Amino acid sequence: MNAVATHCPYCALQCAMGLVPDGRGLKVVARDFPVNEGSLCRKGWSATALLDHPERLRTPLVREKGRLREASWEEALDRVVHGIRAIGERHGADAVAVFGGGGLTNEKAYQLGKFARVALGTAQIDYNGRFCMSSAAAAGMRAFGLDRGLPFPVTDLAGADAVMLVGVNIAETMPPLVRHLRGVRDRGGLIVVDPRRSPTAELAALHLRPRPGTDLALSLGMLHAAVSSGLTDDDHITSRTTGFAEAWRIASRWWPERTEPVTGVAAADLTTAVATLASARNAYILTGRGTEQHSSGADQVSGWINLALALGLPGRPGSGYGCVTGQGNGQGGREHGQKADQLPGYRSITDADARAHVAGVWGVDPDVLPGPGRSAFELLDALGTPGGPRGLLVFGSNPVVSAPDSARVARRLAALDLLVVADLVLSETAALADVVLPVPQWAEEDGTMTNLEGRVLLRRKATEPPPGVRDELRILADLAVRLGQPPERFPVDAEAVFDELRRASAGGPADYAGIGYDRLRAGEALHWPCPAPGHPGTPRPFTERFAHPDGRARFRAVDHRGPAETTDADRPLWLTTGRILAQYQSGAQTRRIAELDAEPFVEVHPDTAAHAGLADGDVARVVSRRGTIVARVRLAPGIRPDTVFTPFHFPGAARANLATNPALDPLSRMPEFKACAVRLEPA
Amino acid sequence: MKVVIAGYGMAGARLAELLAARDAGVEVTVIGAEARPAANRVLLSRLLTGELTETDLSLHEPGWAPRSGVDLRTGTSVSHVDRDGRHVLLSDGTHVPYDALVLATGSRPVLPPIEGLAPDAPGVTVLRTVDDFLGAAAVLDAEARAVVLGGGVLGLETAFALSRRATSVTVVQPSGRLMDRQLDAGAAAILNGLCRRHGLCTVLGRGAVRLYPGEGVKLDDGSFLPAELTVVAAGVRPDTRLAECAGLAVDGGVLVDDRLRTTDPAIHAIGDCARATVPPQGLVAPAWRQAEVLADVLTGGDARYHHSPAPTRLRAGNIDLTVVGDGRAETGEVLRFEDPAGGRYARLAVDGDRLSGAILLGLDDAAARITQLHDGREPLPADRIALMFGRSLPAGPAGADALVCRCNGVTEKSLVDAWRAGAADAAALTAATRAGTGCGDCAGRVAALTATLNRGDTP
C-alpha cells in the first residue's frame, strides 16, 4: 500500500510523514525529507490518534438557553449570518472581527483575509501569529527588507562551526532539527542562550543564562566585545550594510562588565561566545520566542541581527541569521493577509499599488478595501467595549488559553453579541461560543504550508473527514454567498484558491506566482520568492543583496530597556513560559492524545522552592499582578534561582497566561509572554 | 527652563542626551573643556593598544548637538559661577544664564609628591584625556620601556594595555600590595603572580622619589628604572574647584541630596565630582544612574537617587577580578578558596543568608552570580560550592525510569521490556519503542544497551 505523502500537523519544521491505512484508521510511517531525514518526535508519531477521537466535533453546535446543542449546517450558518447582519446594521462593518491562526494552510489564511475585507468589509482581522512571529518579522523586515524566518535551508546548518541559539529550545519544540546541529556540536561550537538549562542547553558547549528580559543588554555587550576586540568583519560592514556607527554608539556603552550585573551572564562567557562565533568559518545566530516575546521584542531581535551583521554572517553563504518559526504555518500564515496591516504576498495594506493589485485579483474596487485594523491583543481587548467589535469569528486559534492575561480575554469574549469558533474539538474558546463549526484535520484535506525555511509544502488528503464536518474554505464560501457575494469569488477547492493566491502574491515580497500544485506534487523544493513557473525558487535570498532598495542590510540603533514591569519585594521572581515536547500550543489537540503526557508544572530552582516552603511535587501558586497559576512544583537546579518556568499548554487553573503581561511591543504589538513578576507560595 | 551642564564627560553627556530626549522644553547648554566630542572613558586604554580609534570612542556622532537641540560649547570651561545673577562665566569670556546649573566636572588625577614630576613633560602622562592617551601611544614603540606609578585598578589596566605595545612594563606600588583598597593579602599575592606570568614587572613596597622625563624613575631604595614613558596612576580626586569657589558645601566631593541638589537648590552635581551619600568611586554606573535621576528631577519628576555600591572589576589581559561590597569583611562566616597555581582565589564574607562582600579572581561564573545576589540583596543559595564556583556539582547517575529517548518518551525500562518481548537488536528496539526516531541523539545509548542485554548483563 502506498503511503500518502504529507507533513506533520504541528510545528513549523513540517516534518514529512507518510500515512497508510491501518485497520479502520491511518498509521504514520517515516518519509525521507531534508528537514527531518525520516524522523519524527512523539507528537508526529501519534498525530493520527486525533482523527477518530471521541471528542472530535462532528456536527455544528449552537447556543440555546445558555447551552450548546447540536444543529444542522443550515441553522448554524443562518445563525452566524443573522448575527453578522444584526451587528453590522447597528454598529457598522468594523463591529464584526476575525481572528485567525498560524496553523491554517496558506489557502485558508488567504481566504480568511479576503473574506474579512471583502465579504465582511471589516478592518478588524488579526491572528495568533501576532503572539508568535511578529517581533522577528518586524526586526527582519527593517534589517533585511524582507521577513523570511530562515533565509537558508536548514540543511545548511550542518556545515557550521558555530551556532548560537537564542531563546530557542529545539530539542523540546522541534527535535528532528537537532540532527542538523550534530556537526557543530561535535566541533564544540553550539552556544545556547536561555534562562534555564533546557534540553537544548544540555547539548551546548556554552550556555549563557541571562535574566529574563535582558537579552538586548546581552547582545549589546557582545557587539561591544566584538568591536573592542577587533573581531568584526569590517569589509562586510562597509560593503553590505548601513547604520553601523549609530549602532556602535549605543553598544560602546555596554562593555561586558556593565552588561554582567544586568544580565547575570559572566563577562568572560560573553566574550567566549563572541570569539567562538567570530573565529568560526561559518556561523549562525538563530532566535526564537524566548527573545522575541517581550514588550521590547522587535528591538531584542534587532540586537541579535546587529551582532550577526557586525560579524558578517547574514548574506554570506554558509552563515547567517534566522528566526526559528513556531507554528506549523507560522511563515505562510503571516504572508497572505490575516495580519491586520497586510494583504497577500506580504504586501502592506496602506500601499496604494498593493491595494490596487489585490483588489484587481479579487474583482473589487480598491477603495472598498478597509485599512489596517487592531493587532491581536488590542483586538481581543476591544471586544464588546464601546467602539469595539461585537461579533468575532475565530478560525484555528484558542485565545482563552493562548492570549496573555487570559482571564481578561475570556471576560472580553463573554461580552460579545456573537462568538463563532471553527475548530475540530471543543476547545476552551469554542466552549464559550454561540456557534461552533466542526472542521477537518490535516489528513483530511489538501493544502499548502510554508515551513520555517520559506519552503512551500503540499499536504495531501489521506482520508475523508467525518460526515458532518465542513472545510473552512467551504464555510467561508457558504457565509460569503449568504452575505451577498458572488459564489465564483469564493472557490472551495484548495488548488483553485492557491492559484488565486499565486496571482494575488505576484510581484509582492512573498511572491508565490511560480509555485503550482503540479510542481509541489513532483517534489520540487520551492522556496519563495518564486515569481514565475520556470523559476527555481530562492533558497538563499540574501547572498547577492538584501531586499532594501539599496541592497544593503541595516543596523538598527537599539538600546536595552528591560521588561514592562519589574520585580519587587512582593513579587520577587520572574515567570517565563514556553513549550514542552509532548504538547503543542494551547494543547487543544495534543492534550487529547493518550500517549502524550499532559501534566502542568512549574519549574523552580531548589533554593527558591525551599525559600518558599515548597518541595518537589507540592502544589504551588504562582501569583502575578494579573492572576494566579496553580501547578505542581518540579525542582530543576539548572534554572536561574530568580526565575520560574511554566508551560503554556494547559487550561483551567494551570493556565500560564492567567499571569502573563499583555504589555505590547510598540512596533510588533507582541505581548510580553516571557517576563512577568511573580511570587511563589504553597497552594 | 535653561539648564547649563558644566562638564562634557560621561555624566554630562548622558544628562544632555536624556534631557534632549525628554523633549520637555528644556534648553540645554553643555560646556566641555576638550575640543572634541565626549569620549567613552571606559575604552580609553584601547587607544594605547590601537584596537580602537578616537572616533570609535566618541559618545556622540558629529552633528549630534544641533540635531538634538543642544547648545554644545567645547574647548572652553566654566571659570566662575554667579549664583545671585544665575549665570556662569566661561573661559572664553562669554556669559551663559541658567535656571539650573549642573556640575559634572569629574575628577582630576592625584599627583604624588615626586621630584621632577611635571605632568606636561614629554614622556610623562597622567592618562586622563583622549590627548593624554594619544600622546602616550605616540611615544610607544617596540623598544619602549614603560613605568606605571600606582598598582590600583587604573594602573594595572594601563600596564596591561601598555604591555601589548611596549617591550617592558613595570608597575611600582608603594604600599606593598596591588589594589590595596580592595584586596586582602591572599588575593593580592595571587594577582601579583598573574601579573608576573603575563610579563609585567611589579615593584612592591617601593615608591618613586625622582622622575626624569623620558629617561626613567628613581626609587626610594636608590634603584633606577629606565623608561621612555612614565604613567602616573596614583588615583583621582573629585574636581570640586568650581563648587568651592562658588561657596557650595564640599567634603570629598560636592555634597548633594537624593535629588542631586547641592547646598544651592539651583545647582546640582553628578558623577565623579559629586558626593551622594558616599564619596565618588570613579565608576560610570552610578554616574549614569545619577544622570537619569537628575533628568527626571529637572523635568518635574520625583525620582530619587539611592546609592547602591557598584562592584569593582579589573579588566586586564585574561584576568577576571571582581570585588563586591567589603571583600575584606571579617564578620560572620568567611569562605575562602585559594589556588595560586591556577591563579584563582575566592573570598566570601557571609552575614546570615546575605553576602556582605566578596573577592573573586579567575572565577567568572561565580562573579556574575554573586554580583547579582549582592545587588539584589537576595538570599544566598544553600549550596556554598555552587555559590563559590558558580556551578552546581553534577547530579548522580540516572535510574531505569530515566528517559533514554526524550523525543519519544522512551525509558531504559521500556527498552528492556521491549528486548524481553523479542526485540533483539537496535533496529528492532527502535521499531518497537520509536527510540532514536526523533533527534537521533540516543542511537548510541540504544546500541550500547542492546549489546549489554545480548551479552546477558544487567544494564
UniProtKB/TrEMBL annotation, chain A:
SMART domains: Molybdop_Fe4S4. One of its GO terms (biological process) is respiratory electron transport chain. GO terms for molecular function: 4 iron, 4 sulfur cluster binding; metal ion binding; molybdopterin cofactor binding; NADH dehydrogenase activity. Signal peptide: none annotated. It is an enzyme of class 1 (oxidoreductase). GO terms for cellular component: membrane. Pfam families: Molybdop_Fe4S4, Molybdopterin, Molydop_binding. CDD domains: MopB_CT_Fdh-Nap-like. Its EC number is 1.7.99.4. Residues 1-53 form the 4Fe-4S Mo/W bis-MGD-type domain. Keywords: 4Fe-4S, Iron, Iron-sulfur, Metal-binding, Oxidoreductase. Coiled coil: none annotated. This is Assimilatory nitrate reductase catalytic subunit. It comes from Phytomonospora endophytica.
TrEMBL record, chain B:
It holds the Pfam family Pyr_redox_2. Keywords: FAD, Flavoprotein, Oxidoreductase. Its cofactor is FAD. Residues 312-365 form the NADH-rubredoxin oxidoreductase C-terminal domain. GO terms for molecular function: oxidoreductase activity. Residues 1-276 form the FAD/NAD(P)-binding domain. The keyword Oxidoreductase applies. It comes from the Bacteria. Its EC number is 1.7.99.4. Residues 403-449 form the BFD-like [2Fe-2S]-binding domain. InterPro entries: BFD-like_2Fe2S-bd_dom (IPR007419), BFD-like_2Fe2S-bd_dom_sf (IPR041854), FAD-bd_OxRdtase (IPR050260), FAD/NAD-bd_sf (IPR036188), FAD/NAD-binding_dom (IPR023753), Rubredoxin_C (IPR041575). This is Assimilatory nitrate reductase electron transfer subunit.
